[in-house]
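Why do we care about 3D structure at all? Because function follows from shape, and shape follows, mostly, from sequence. That is the central idea of this module. The next example makes it concrete: a single protein chain, its amino acid sequence, and then its structure expressed as tokens.
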Amino acid sequence: MVDKKKEEIFRKIQEALQNIPDNYSILEEQVDLELQLKYFKFSKKVKENLDKEDILTHINDLFNPEIEQEKKKRLMVSLASIDSIEAFRALEKYVNEGEESLHKWAVLAFQESRMLIETSLLGEQQMFISTGLGGKGNLLRYFAVIIGKEDREFSTTEKNLIKDELEFALGHHDSFLEEIDFHYGYVSTLTMIPIRQPIKEIFDSTIQECNQLGDFLYDEVILTNVKVFNDQEITDMISAKRKEETDPSEDDSEVKN
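And the structure:
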């Protein structure tokens, strides 16, 4: 029952990605989702009462060290909400030269401003896709954990096999491997995958090929584009998975209910 639910979720995600129109833009930087939600909630409020000319008169306040950061955040959101090349260039400059503590906020404002300008110039609404891990071009970044069936170090042969098979599967789908790290009992990876490619199929085929030569990997992966999980989070999830394998009673109760 649990596996069927997961399959359905993956299917719906793939369907949604397949139906995304071509006029989309992906947020490239990794920005925490909580900050993104805070930004867009604040942006919605700011848009209610905007005076374009008044906003532009304060544009230099962005680079004034005496202006409080909260005021700069409001100004950035305001600049991102008006159709103005001058506002766009100011935000672009702040992303590159502004205070590091406000960089992520500035990135979101710059992206929103760019989408507004593109919509105005092209005459059609642009779609903005943002995830916690970002992306580039038509690629989204994914964090994945491949789990060993045994709680042990991987052998050199197993490490080479996993890396080679994953790179082969990614290459077959116009994707690539950014990072791969081998840990005790699991492998963590960062990959870049085109938005319309079958994400699950890539990892399924990797695990299937590896298991033909040793049957040492679970056939499920931990996969997300929200954040990079830390070691404790991964260990907890793997422990839950192994407990599920040895004591499936919890799953049985879910099916009965």
